[in-house]
């Protein structure tokens, strides 16, 4: 069976079509009624004019008709034939024509046709439309006929009929119809334009919503629809934007949860690896260390052999230090939190590194917002984080370099949090490594295990905070540390 593809019309086209159809139908119906009223008004005006004229002629010649002064009537009506008055005919009481205007004298059909035969009243008026031939041309006339009565008498003495040309009526009706057609055409154009504009105004937010759903289906939760109205469509747009914002937050939370899950899995793997290393390496390494120490105490060794043993001892100490750092990183110790001054923690961290900073003649610039409340943190852990970052900054800058520290409380969100900016003018970190440096065992230095920043992030996340690298003007690196004023997971 052959499938016939249905033609698809957009909502804009359908809305514009049906709106235009209804408005055009109403407009043309209204114009049709107006036109009919105008035509009837023109015809009624013509009838009234004809009635006035025929009554005037009847009153002016009634006495002459009674006295049978037909020649005077003929002379009198000969001067009235002009403009749209085509003919005048007088009839006697029996309906026989007695006076006929010159222009219609040969048209017996018109002359012998009268409506005032039989019993008629003084107020009766008879209207008829006929086509007559005058001067070889056919034209439509309106006949108006009334009976002639003498005041104070009930006897009908005759009747008078006039023929009014309808050419002017036709011209006025034609002009009226042209005007109505012009109005109709203008109304049609305006209706189509207004319907199209209205349809676009209504469907544009719908198209935006469709585009928004497509963007979201492709995973772009940052797309927002501009709110262009305050009606139900505007409410729908705002609801869509709120939904997109919630989806974006949910995805960010999911990504963060996945990142933390991966981190936990890494830590678990590292923990298992560390336990194996501690078991398989630490005990033999201790035995080797003790044997080397005993050999070093022997007096039979010369200076060269003692130097070689000293180098071996240093290597063993480095291995022990690495194992210690590795085990320290994998242990998740419970926070010993309390209320501490963040400024004092920063000062204590700088004091620990003071000899190294003075040796390298590094300038420290510290700016702290006034009247800061205390933070609910584990002071030793936070000091460990700051010392790690400051040591990295110290190693990155040249002699005479500068390290800047800024501490403030951000109150823009519902839950205020501390911001600590630590920046230096050293060699900097490539932007492609900004996130990698927080991964375990990743390092850009020639020495080190690459666990310092990973441990710093783990400690801050335990506090409900975070650490990341941000852009700064000029050379060097800048770390932003955030710590909530009141962590939700605090234990008092």
What's the end-to-end separation, in Å? 77 Å
Please count the beta strands (DSSP E, at least 2 residues each).
12
User: Which homologous superfamily in CATH is the superfamily of the largest domain?
Assistant: PAS domain
Overall pLDDT level: 81
Strand content: 15-25%
Q: Over the alpha carbons, how many angstroms does the gyration radius reach? A: 55 Å
Structural domain count: 3
Q: What oligomerization state is this entry in?
A: single chain
Q: Indicate the structural class.
A: alpha+beta
Task: Give a quick set of tags describing it.
single chain; 492 residues; alpha+beta; Beta-Lactamase; Heat Shock Protein 90; 3 domains; five-stranded antiparallel sheet; 10 helices
SSE topology sketch:
Layout: H1 11-66, H2 70-78, E1 85-92, E2 97-100, H3 108-111, E3 126-134, E4 137-149, E5 156-165, H4 167-217, H5 232-296, H6 303-330, E6 338-340, H7 342-352, H8 354-359, E7 363-368, E8 375-377, H9 379-396, E9 402-410, E10 417-424, H10 452-462, E11 466-469, E12 478-484
Parallel strand pairs: 7-9
Antiparallel strand pairs: 1-2, 1-5, 3-4, 4-5, 6-8, 9-10, 10-12, 11-12
Helix pairs in contact: 1-2, 1-4, 4-5, 5-6, 7-9, 9-10
Structure, described:
With 492 residues, the protein is α+β, with helices and mostly antiparallel strands. The protein has three domains: 163 residues, PAS domain (Beta-Lactamase), CATH 3.30.450; 98 residues, Helix Hairpins, CATH 1.10.287; 152 residues, Heat Shock Protein 90. The protein is 53% helix and 17% strand. It contains ten helices and twelve strands. The strands form three sheets. The chain has a five-stranded antiparallel sheet with strand order 2-1-5-4-3. It has a five-stranded mixed sheet with strand order 7-9-10-12-11, covered by helices on one side. Strand 11 and strand 12 form a beta hairpin. Helix 7 packs across helix 9 and helix 9 packs antiparallel against helix 10. It is rod-shaped. The mean pLDDT is 81.
């Amino acid at each position: 069976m052959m499938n016939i593809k249905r033609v698809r019309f957009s909502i804009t086209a359908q809305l514009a079509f049906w709106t235009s159809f209804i408005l055009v139908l109403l407009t043309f119906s209204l114009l049709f009624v107006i036109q009919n009223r105008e035509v009837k008004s023109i015809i009624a005006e013509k009838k009234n004019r004809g009635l006035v004229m025929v009554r005037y002629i009847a009153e002016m010649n009634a006495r002459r008709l009674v006295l049978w002064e037909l020649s005077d009537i003929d002379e009198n009506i000969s001067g009235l034939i002009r403009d749209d008055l085509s003919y005048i005919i007088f009839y006697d009481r029996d309906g026989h024509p007695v006076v006929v205007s010159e222009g219609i004298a040969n048209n017996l059909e018109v002359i012998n046709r009268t409506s005032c035969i039989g019993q008629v009243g003084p107020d009766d008026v008879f209207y008829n439309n006929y086509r007559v031939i005058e001067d070889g041309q056919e034209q439509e006339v309106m006949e108006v006929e009334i009976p002639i009565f003498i005041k104070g008498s009930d006897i009908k003495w005759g009747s008078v009929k006039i023929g009014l040309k309808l050419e002017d009526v036709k011209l006025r009706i034609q002009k009226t119809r042209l005007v109505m057609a012009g109005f109709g055409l203008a109304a049609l154009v305006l209706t189509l334009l207004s319907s199209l504009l209205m349809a676009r105004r209504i469907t544009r937010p719908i198209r935006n919503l469709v585009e928004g759903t497509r963007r979201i289906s492709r995973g772009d939760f940052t797309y927002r629809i501009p709110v262009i109205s305050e009606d139900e469509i505007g409410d729908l747009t705002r609801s869509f934007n709120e939904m997109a914002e919630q989806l974006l937050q949910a995805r960010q939370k999911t990504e963060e949860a996945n990142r933390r899950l991966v981190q936990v899995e890494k830590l678990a793997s590292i923990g298992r690896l560390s336990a194996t290393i501690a078991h398989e390496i630490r005990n033999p390494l201790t035995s080797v260390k003790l044997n080397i120490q005993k050999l070093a105490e022997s007096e039979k060794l010369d200076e060269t052999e003692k130097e070689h043993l000293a180098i071996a001892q240093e290597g063993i100490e480095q291995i022990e230090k690495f194992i210690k750092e590795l085990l320290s990183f994998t242990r998740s110790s419970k926070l010993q939190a309390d209320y501490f001054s963040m400024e004092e923690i920063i000062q204590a961290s700088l004091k620990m590194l003071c000899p190294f900073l003075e040796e390298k003649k590094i300038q420290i610039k510290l700016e702290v917002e006034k009247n800061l409340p205390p933070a609910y943190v584990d002071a030793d852990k936070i000091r460990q984080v700051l010392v790690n970052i400051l040591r990295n900054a110290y190693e990155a800058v040249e002699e005479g370099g500068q390290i800047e520290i800024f501490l403030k409380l951000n109150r823009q969100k519902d839950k205020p949090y501390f911001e600590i900016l630590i920046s230096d003018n050293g060699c900097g970190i490539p932007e492609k490594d900004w996130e990698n440096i927080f991964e375990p065992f990743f390092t850009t230095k020639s020495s080190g295990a690459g666990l310092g920043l990973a441990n710093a992030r783990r400690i801050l996340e335990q506090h409900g905070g975070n650490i990341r690298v941000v852009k700064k003007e000029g050379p060097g690196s800048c770390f932003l540390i955030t710590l909530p004023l009141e962590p939700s997971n605090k234990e008092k």
